Amino acid sequence: MKQKIQLFDVVALTEDVLGTGLSRGQVGTVVDILGNGDAFEVEFCDKDGRMYDSLGLRPEQLIVLIYEPAFA
User: Fold this and answer.
1) Fewer beta carbons within 10 Å, N or C terminal of the chain?
2) Which structural domains are found in the chain, ordered by start?
């Protein structure tokens, strides 16, 4: 089951984004929900916290990173 993407979720790209230099696996933070969840504005930052890109992405281009185990 795919987790619903929410504001401030840490996400990773599931595919390369042509023309941006962003590659599958790069990590960003959801900073806005667009079109009732049809797209998400995601900011990508370097290790020092400086943003180097921000763009709108479709839900199928993202996977939510999970930091704690899910208990049944």
Assistant:
1) C
2) 10-64 (2.30.30)
